[in-house]
Amino acid sequence: TTVFFKLYAPFKNRVYCMTSHNDYMPDTVNAMTRTPGGAWWFLEMNVPAGEPFTYQYLIDGELRVADPFSEHILDPWNDGYISSATYPNMPNYPVGQTTGIVSLYETAKSVYNWTNTTFNAPPQEELLIYELLIRDFVTTHNYQTLIDTLDYIERLGVNAIELMPNSEFEGNLSWGYNPSFHMALDKYYGTPDKFREFVDSCHSRGIAVIMDQVFNHAFGQNPIAQMWWDSNNNRPAANNPYMNQNCPHPPNCWGNDFDHFVQPTRDYMDRINTYWIEEFKIDGIRFDFTKGFTNSSNADNYQAPRIAALKRMADVCWNKDADFYVILEHWGPNQEEKELSDYGMMLWGNAVHQYYEAAMGYTPYSDFKWGIYKERGWTDKHLITYMESHDEERASYQIKTYGNSSGGYDTKTLATRADRIIQASAFFYTIPGPKMIYMFEELGYDISIDNPCRVCEKPILWNYYDNQYRQKIYFYMASMMDMRKKHDVFNTSNFTYALNGASKRINLNGSAMNAAVVGNFSVTQNNVYPNFQHTGTWYDYFTGDSITVTNATATISFSPGEWHIYTDVKLADAAFMDLPEEVLAEVKPFMTFPNPSHGMMDLLLDFAEGTRVTWSLVDLNGRVAAQGEIQCEGPMIEPMDFSALAKGMYFLNLTTPERHYTDRVVLQ
Question: Which of 135, 525, 535, 550 is at 20 to 30 A from 69, Cα to Cα?
């Protein structure tokens, strides 16, 4: 029944703790006491046990802010758009009592009963991470539906899920890199206990959970920015104890920049990091743009203070959990990244553009060796390499739009595009070290990152799985992940590679067996150089066929896009490759998004260039509510405005010269 409030607020003259129990009115009983040093304010208050209440701080009679260390907030501008299915029984905002964001707190809360208390996270070098944005992964954008997809994710074979930021950010529809309250869970995705259930469910399946935290900056709703703010210049004030007045490392500047060399910022980060570890049992944090943890304008050069700041932060995390994943999106000089790796941290390794080039069939710039830790001179397998991430263009879109061709071999077609992605994957999963994929990469997702804008909502195309070519990517990736887990040779430190040009190879040496990965990334017939470790019999991992090698250095002629993973030991059939061929439902060459809709929606068309499509929207009584004609320019998106129509269900009819299609549309 007792709550102790403590606020760090130097340079302030008067602070009240106003709550829903005192009607948000400043009074002598809720005036906070300042410590003799003048930096801290405190107040002890009696409250009913087990009854949620809201509170704010009133500072110097003008500024009302929520607690910077809020575990929960109520937002009067955005909470109204959160469904009761996602967040049941959301507490009421104190309308008429105050304004702005308020903190929500409850004493004597019921404790979540963890099902899995013995989970051991996978070793760093064996991580297979699935990065996802909840908003664009499941249509309900909530943890419950995410839990319901874990069968799909587990079957794929990943052993870690990395969520794009799910602590409070400004607005609802966001990537999350505009943080406001780092220690509060964003309600747009669900309740705290439902997030705990998600972590618990992942752990029960052997899957680690990694959060994404943004400590480079904070946006304007963050109380730390508001409490010391220069309104004349629209920036943090000179006396802000946490933040720089100006971002010191342009052009990489977003939001209000934290000063990472002052104790308040360090205390802020440490409190938040340990909170997520202790309260939610997460297994790691991916720290966004840690290259920005500097006050120097020479951010591209080696910065000893930046390295020290990151080591200090990591030590605090490891004091709570010795096996905690500290993952950096650093983009600093290799000297720094090697030092951070040597210290035990992992770092993102962008090999996207080189894998693009290889998959598209443009080989002069397709050497993806910088995605290998050894190439950087690192000692440990701490480089998390990826072919796609939230920041990069989709590989399948890139191939579909710009892919190379020769004669009848065209990488742009879906069937060949899928094969090229599988080929690139063979040279991705067989390189030792942790790996990451981005959601739906395993289905060849091909809506551009810039359609309609970089951070805009994207269509959630689960129907991709019904397409035999896209499903083929899924099962090959799953098989390769399974292969990595079963055979130690794919985690060896004894391997060589030649990845420049059209002919690429990786030779891996292990105590139980050796492996050779060979491929022709050209769009024409080409000689490859397997450089087998020895002569004798070698076995194709996916087909089980064998070849007899009499000259280990001899060339072999490969068809365009041909690749093989050879081992010198006969292995059991590759996982999933013995599944019977299924007759899959035809995928319509169009879809509407979002559906259901409030009236504004996009019609995604995938017809050949020059196809004339007539369409009509018909209500349940057979009346035509809208109609039109589209001349297709290849795959395209046509905006549709049905906002003037009555709510209800309609049928969208599309007709081409070849055939007729129908789909259901719901307006709400």
Answer: 135
